[in-house]
Amino acid sequence: MTEEDIEKDILASWKEISAFLGYDVRTCQRWEKEAGLPVHRVLDSSKSRVFAFEQEIDEWMNSRTQDRPKNKRKYLYLLIPAALLILTYLVFIFPYSSSQPHDFKIKDSKLVVLNKNGKKLWDYDTGIKSLRNEEFYRLFFQFKRISENRLHPNFPLLVIQDINQDKEKEVLFVPRSLIPENDTYGLCCLNSKGKENWTYAPGRAMKFGEKLYPSDYTIKGLEVIDLNQDNRVEILILSFNINMFPTTLSVLDPKGEVKREYWNSGRITDLVFYDLDEDEEIEIMLAGCNNEYNKGFLAVLEPDFKSGSSPQTGYYRSSDLMQGVEHQYILFPGQDLGNPALNRNPMGRINIIDEKSVSVESQSGLIYEFDFDFALKEIRFADRYEDFYNEAYQKGLTKSKFTAKTMAELKSELMAQISYFNGRRWVPTPVSSENKPIQ
Q: Among candidates 323, 427, 425, which has minimal Cα distance to 374?
């Protein structure tokens, strides 16, 4: 390039530079600072003069033009994660929010199933004109509920959950009637589209002693839990004979097949799950009353317990059932405080205390606390027990009012009357399941 060519190639001011580029001066100055526009300065005066070479400007512009596809690719890389998020939402989240069961309403004889947005998906007609209303089912929806004013908890009668791990939510529904004698409906499992997967009828005709009891059973409630921690849930159903004492706990798999049953001669009022021995399998604890002995009971079953019945004799024993092999079956002393409601003094509520103890509370207000080996740690008295006791004193049924001395005497008497079943007989201390006979 000759000297003359060089002189022609020089742009001697911001005005010339901007004119060459076709953009205003401020834009060109910003490009120098932010994008490396090749501008030079003459430092021979107090105010530096700028100049640039047309060839360098052209090369800079060409490089900018060639970088644009790269920038587009850069933006494309940023868009890919966003696209994946949108795809994930459409595949995994959107179906649950738009087409998956989430909530419900009760309208006349129908269960109306709603999505997460409150829109109707489908309805299921039970054909029961006296079907319980929505207010009732809200008390028995999804989870076990414990009220401070009630000793007995409410177990779910309606559960919405993916029970078979197909990424579709099933609806487990127990129809209940306002007419008690008609309240013998079973459990139905409905798929996400409202079609019946399977149904389960509670109880069956069973002979106890010499008497055959009919299959008039009602479902008290159900629980969905993974007992064996194998990522497959079990469905536990608690049901009892409407008019007589037999009560059954059934364990179903996600296909509705009955895997095992436990029968108790008396009502079961509470059901709690906890890994007592830290073996990553969850034990089942039951509380209620045993009609043969007129006493409250606490039973502990292993998650894979063998089907059978509570320890009974005579009229309360079923020849159709093997005797169960419980981890523990504990009987508690009865109460004679002149109140017919306390005749059997059933156990009503089980609690896990500080992950160290199990407590069970009787209808009268006696609270028994055990360690996880079921050795008795303590007996406490709820306020209502003191009320019952003082009422009995006013009727002349007890020797004294409820005092600290009375408490100490009662504790001693009650401790001596607790009994454990070892598979053959009742004993005063906890027993190991290894010491029980194999059925």
A: 427
User: What is the C-alpha radius of gyration for the chain, rounded to an integer number of angstroms?
Assistant: 38
Amino acid at 234: E
Tell me the pLDDT tens digit for each residue of 234-261.
999 999 998 888 999 999 999 999 999 9
Q: Is 269 left (phi over 0), alpha (psi -120 to 50) or beta?
A: alpha
The chain-wide mean pLDDT, for the chain, equals 85
Phi, psi of 271 (to 5 degrees): -145, 120
- pLDDT attached to residue 295: 93
Q: From CA 417, how far away is CA 376, in angstroms rounded?
A: 12
Inter-residue contact 248 to 261 (CB < 8 Å): yes
The tokens describing 114, both together, are 């709603």
Query: What token pair was written down for 67?
Result: 């970088």
pLDDT attached to residue 46: 43
Q: Is 421:365 a contact under the CB 8 Å cutoff?
A: no
Determine the Cα angle at 390 with ends 387 and 395, to 5°: 125
Cα 222 from Cα 235, distance rounded (Å) = 7
Position 288 scores a pLDDT of: 94
285-298 burial string, b = 16+ CB within 10 Å, else e? bbbbbbbbbebbbb
Q: Which two tokens stand for residue 379?
A: 């007996």
**CB neighbour list of residue 116: distance below 8 Å, 6 or more residues apart:** 96, 97, 98, 100, 102, 103
Token pair for residue 246? 């037999």
Please say whether the dihedral angle defined by the alpha carbons of residues 161, 165, 167 and 168, taken in this order, is positive or negative: negative
Integer angstrom CA distances of residue 181 from 100, 110, 174, 187, 250:
35, 20, 16, 17, 22
**What is the rounded CA–CA span in Å between residue 371 and residue 356?**
6
Q: Which of 54, 42, 50 is nearest to 25 (CA)?
A: 50
C-alpha distances in Å from residue 48, one per residue of 51, 57, 104, 235: 10, 20, 78, 85
Helices (H) and strands (E) in the chain, counts: 8, 27
CA distance 233 to 247: 23
Q: What's the DSSP call for residue 141? A: B
Q: Give the pLDDT confidence of 39-82 residue by residue, as tens digits.
A: 887 665 445 678 888 888 888 888 876 655 555 555 555 566 66
Spans of the chain below 50 pLDDT: 1, 45-46, 438-439
Full-model pTM: 0.74
